[in-house]
Structure formats: C-alpha cells, structure tokens
Amino acid sequence: MTVLRSLLAGTCALALAAGAQASDLKVGFLSTLSGGGAGLGVDIRDGFLLALGEAGADDVEVVVEDTQRKPEVAVQVADEFIQREEVDVLTGIVFSNIALAVVPSAVNQGKFYISPNAGPSQLAGRGCHENYFNVAWQNDAMHEAAGAHANDAGYESAFIMAPNYPAGQDGLTGFKRFYEGEVVSEVYTRLGQTDYAAEIAQIRASDADVAYFFLPGGMGISFLKQYADAGVDIPLIGPGFSFDQTILPAVGDAAAGVRNTSEWSPDLDTAANAAFVESFRAAYDRTPSMYAAQGYDAAQLLLSAMETADVSDADAFREALRAAEFESVRGAFRFAANQHPIQDIYVREVVERDGVWTNVVVGPSLQDHSDVYGADCDL
Amino acid sequence: MTTILFIEQVLNGLQFGVMLFLMAAGLTLVFGVMGLINLAHGALYMVGAFAAASVAAATGSFLLGLIASLAAAAMAGAIVEIVVIRRLYRRDHLDQVLATFALILIFSEGTRWLFGSFPLYLDIPEALSGPVTLPGGIDYPLYRLFIIAVGLAVAGFLFWLIARTRLGIRIRAGEADREMIAALGVDISKLYTLVFALGAALAGMAGALVGAIQSVEVGMGEPVLILAFVTIIIGGIGSIKGAFVGALLVGLIDTLGRTLLPIAFGTVMEASAATTVGSALASMLIYILMAGVLIARPQGLFGAAA
C-alpha cells in the first residue's frame, strides 16, 4: 500500500525555521484512490488539498491513504491514523458501506469525522453522533429532489431503476417519497451490471412519461450510451451521481440534454464557486466534479472551525464546526440538528461547453432541504 | 410481455452470449492446451478496450481502434506468456492463480498510471449507431446486431482453425498429449505463445467491441472474467464448441431470467416484493445452472471425460 504524505505548502520549511514547531491539527484523509471508483476519491482529495493550499494552511498536516474501496482495508487505515498517526480529524470516504465501517468507531474514540460524500441514513438518524459532520448530503437528497422535479415537469408516470443494493433501494424510496405520479415499473439491476439491453427494452415497452435511474459510476456510463443508441424517446432523469464531471466525458453526447439533480454545479452562480472552478482548473487542468466541490467545502469547514477554536478543546471545536461559518461553493449552507446539511438542490442539464460535456443549472428543485432521518437523531 | 419484447430480449441474450464466447474461447484454449488457469484474461480484455479507445480518439476511426485492440492485446498476451506464464506450466494451479492474480493488479495499476483514474470515451462508429427496424416492427440497435455478426464470424473462424488447419491439429494434439507432440518435433513453446496470444487477441477484441457501449475503465475485465469461467465450466473445459454453447446458454438464461422472473413472481405476489425477489433469483440463475451441470455432468456439456 502506498502511503502518500503531503505536507502542505511550506510546512517543512517553516518547521525547520521554527525549530520543532508541530502542526496544530492533523487530518487523516482516507479515500478510494485506486481501482474502481478511484476517480471520485481523487477528486475529493484534490478539492480538499486545493482549499488548504489556497488558505496557506501551514498549521494543518494531512496524511493521505488509499482504502482500495474495501471496508476491511479502510478500517485498518483508520486504526493506523488514530493510533499511530494520532490524527484529530478524519475525512475522505466516498462510499456509504465504507463510511459505516469506519465512522462509528472513529467518532466513539473522540475523533472528528467530516463526510465529504457518503451520507447513509443510519448516521443521519439513530446513529448520529456529535463528532460526525456531513458536509455533502444525506444519501436520499438528490433522489428526493428528482422526484420533486418529475412532479414539476408534469410527468404522470415513471419507470424507475436502481442497482439491487441498500443505496439503490434507498434511492428509489427517496424518489417515491416526493414523486406524486404513478410508478409503472420498478426494476432492480445487479450491482456492477454493464449491459442494460434487457432493461432498456422494458423501458421502451413501458410507455412511461419518464425513466428515472440511479446508476453510479461505470454502470451509468454503460446505461446512457446504450440508451442513446437504442433510440428510445422516453426522457431520462437521474441524480447528479450519474451525470457527474468524472463520467460525462466518457459518456459524450449520449447524455445531452438529460436533467439531473445535485446540490452543486460548475456554473452555479456564487462568487466562491466561480473562484473555486477557476483555481481547480488552473491547478489540475480539468473541470471539477461535485465530489471535488464537496472535498473543497470539507476543507473550508475545517479551516473555519480552526479560526475560532483549537482542536484540543473538543467542545469548542465542535461548536465551531456546527456554526459552519464558511462560504460554501454551493451558496447558502447550514447544518441541521443532526449535523447534516440544510441546502438547496438544483436541477441541472447536461450540455457541451467549450468542447467539454458538463452541467448547467436549470433551476431549483428543493429549497432549504434537509433529510427526514433527523427526527430520529438525539442531538 | 409481448412477443416483440420477448424477441428483443432473445436478441439481447444472443448478443451477450457471443460477447462472452469471445472471452471464453481464449480462456478455454489456454486451459485446454496448456493446463493453465489464467485469471489475467480479464486484464487483456481491458487492454483491448483501452487500446481501442485511445487509438480511436487519436485517429477518429473505430476500425483502426478495433485493429489496435487486437494488436495490443495479442502483444500484451505474448509478452506476458514469455515473461511470466511460461514459468508456470509445470507449477500447480495455486501458483498459477497467485501469479495471474498478481498480473491483474499490475495491469490495473499500470493502466491507471498511464490513463488516469477516469473512464475513457469510446463511441459507436457513425455508420453503426442508432436503431434499425427489423421485420415484425422491432427497433433494435444496429451495433448490437453487428456484435452478434462479428461473434458468429469469429466462432466460424475458430471452428475452421481448429478443425481444418495445421495449427488447429497441433492445438488439438497439444491438448491430447503434450510430450508426444514435442517428441514429434513441434516447437511447443512457440505453439504455447501463439495460442496465448490468440486467446488474448480475442479478449482484446471483445473489450473493444463492448467498450463502445459500456464504460472503458480500470477493472472492467473482472466481472466478465467470472462469467467467462462459468461459461467454460458449463461448456466443458478445453472445448471451443462447449464454450460457444455455454456462452449462448449463459447469455440467454441471464438476460431472459432478468426480465421474466420478476414478471413470473408478480403473478403470485405483490409487485415491489416480486421485483426484489425476482432480481435476486435472476442473478443466481447462471450459477444454479452451473451447479446443475456440475452435478449431472462434472466434465461439462462438451468436456472430455477425465
């Protein structure tokens, strides 16, 4: 396993100059950086490090390690971070199953965890914890927004589809929670399935007004290309995961014009966002994804808390995190009682801009949205 | 379910089957002739897809990409055979599995290092894109028909190669008795490299063909590899005919199971439960088939009795 240690801008030089000045805060960043799904982890990491670099945060030390998308590896990495590296804050996990394996034990050992992506319902509801902050979304948010959008667009019947695993079932449940039309068919595909000919034939035969699908990563790429090639004229909508900047270039014009829901978009009109997109492009020579934006916000949240409190005073630091006094790239952002976001979710459309396939905001779908699980949380 | 939908699903199953055949043919040849379990076969599939995607992106020609996939996978196969695999023929299967598993990791990380973590773009050529209307009013993607045609053509070519050519005679002889054909003066190590490269080229071509309608990404080969192993176990290890029949069986049963089972359960239980149970059972179907074949005919449908 490669251990990638990045001491940020000038930390080394400063430390040498000042004798033995230790970092004020140590972050353990564990994420999926190799194998399938690595693109997401890489974007979160790059966004996170970009924010720290921009702030010139030489009092933050970051230890980066790969979890290979395996819960058992992630648990080992987290133990190493906590026991050997003695980090104060952990962050970086992409996938919900890995978050569920790592987060409860980390926060119970008094560490802070800032989630830049995964938001499983367990950690938003009964399993919420005072040291767990989710700066991205609860998993259902985009599906709920898609359901609301399907109502707004006047679709009276829907064909809905997701992989047969917990997040897929949650996704369709989230869609149905807000969708008021008729669900003509609900199909579960195999996780990791690459051929959707059989499902596309069913969509064609269903005669629904719209097809809603949640297929993250490579599954979405395969489905979109095959759907476009099959010439089915039923419009698609999906959550932002299926139309993210990490996959759009591989889908090409097969996704043109498709509506999807996300809390962020590269063209979202806030000053902080314009600056973020520009500096991310300058630093990494590609358009940032939603994941990069979330990594960037996770670092901003951390930095904002460090300004008012020291991590050695856990209670004060927790209060400072809870205040969320930072300018999120997605505009208005605050935490609900369960320390998950209250935020707007937008409808986006896939377009080609300057030769790059990307998303533009069409309008809001849900405003000041928070999750339903907070009611079960005792915080 | 209407007749049209059923015919469309049969075509889908057929297309999936011939694609699996391209993978399984190489796997079964290598196992049959050299007695080698090659877990890295999926990596060669990935090599083919990446070669096709990068050449097609650079030249704008899908055909050149397809040729590049054959060449790159055959070359990668030959190099791997000469450098690594050759040392494994005399070792037991555990050593082979370990070494070829290491090759998977090396190929995956090597590809990630060369091409980055993000999936590549490979599109269907203009002339083959979009649906065509078949007799009976079925709209079916032309490209999938193209895959079926290519798969059947390759199957025909392989049968001819094995049954009618000198190389085929040597391959069959190699399966039957390695020592004897070496004693007859056939350069056995050259034959092995050739067979391995041929299998690799078929895998690479499958990767390129499928890459155009799926996602070209690191790790794309492993899920297909598992199905290819199921295919050759059902068909009988070492038999091209077995690989062909096994691949079509797996393709048809998997595709039809996925659509028919939820409908079948829907007649006896509530819709959303039927979907869940039906989908779960559908994903087990081919493994149930494999288990059934192993019980009734342990050597596979067309395998030579041990």
Automatic annotation (TrEMBL), chain A:
Keyword Kinase: no
One Pfam family, short name: Peripla_BP_6
CDD domains cross-referenced by the UniProt entry: PBP1_Nba-like (cd06359)
Keywords: Amino-acid transport, Signal, Transport
Domain Leucine-binding protein: 25-351
GO biological processes: amino acid transport
Signal peptide per UniProt: 1-22
InterPro entries xrefs: BCAA_transport (IPR051010), Leu-bd (IPR028081), Peripla_BP_I (IPR028082)
Coiled coil (residue ranges): none
Keyword flag Glycoprotein: no
TM helices/strands, residue ranges: none
Gene3D superfamilies recorded: 3.40.50.2300
Protein family membership: Belongs to the leucine-binding protein family.
Protein name as catalogued: ABC transporter substrate-binding protein
Species lineage: Bacteria, Pseudomonadati, Pseudomonadota, Alphaproteobacteria, Rhodobacterales
Automatic annotation (TrEMBL), chain B:
Residues spanning the signal sequence: none
Protein's GO biological process: amino acid transport
Lineage top rank: taxon: Bacteria
Keyword list, A-Z: Amino-acid transport, Cell membrane, Membrane, Transmembrane, Transmembrane helix, Transport
TM spans (from-to): 16-36, 43-60, 66-85, 97-122, 142-163, 191-213, 225-252, 273-296
Major localisation: membrane
One annotated Gene Ontology cellular component of this protein: plasma membrane
Subcellular location: Cell membrane
GO terms of molecular function: transmembrane transporter activity
Membrane topology: Multi-pass membrane protein
Family of this protein: Belongs to the binding-protein-dependent transport system permease family. LivHM subfamily.
Protein name, as recorded: Branched-chain amino acid ABC transporter permease
Species the sequence originates in: Rhodosalinus sediminis
